[in-house]
Amino acid sequence: MTDSISVDPHGLAKVGRQSREVAAAMPTEIARIQGPSDEAAAALRGWRTREALTRCTQAWTDCLRALAAEVDANGANMIATADNYAAADSSVHSSMSYAGADGGGR
What is the pTM assigned to this prediction? Predict the structure, then answer.
């Protein structure tokens, strides 16, 4: 049994673009976390949990920003891979000669 790999360059590029769109939207969503957390921390004056909540929010924000960068990079890589597949397919297609296609065949 022979296993084969099939790639849909158009589909791969589409998923790559969608990934990049999600990554681009993430900073806005991340900012929405900070407001309520900052409000909660402000209400905890004099409590040790205030500092802990602030550090936790910052760590979560940093993690989400790193995730957004990773999702964006993965999307870019998917698009580049799709482009590479399409270029290879086009190159193979244009280099093939069909019997009679060039007037004499090979």
Answer: 0.76
pLDDT at 106: 47
Contact 57, 34 (CB under 8 A): yes
User: 43, exposed or middle or buried, with CB in 10 Å at 0-12, 13-18, 19+?
Assistant: exposed
CA–CA distance, 41 with 54 (Å, rounded to integer): 7
Question: Is the distance from CB of 97 to CB of 106 less than 8 angstroms?
Answer: yes
Q: Measured between alpha carbons, how far is residue 51 from residues 30, 45, 57, 63, 72 in Å?
A: 19, 9, 10, 18, 32
DSSP calls for 27-69: HHHHHHHHHHHHHHHHTTTT-HHHHHHHHHHHHHHHHHHHHHH
CA-CA distance, 77 to 89, in Å (whole number)?
18
Residues ≥6 apart with Cβ < 8 Å to 21: none
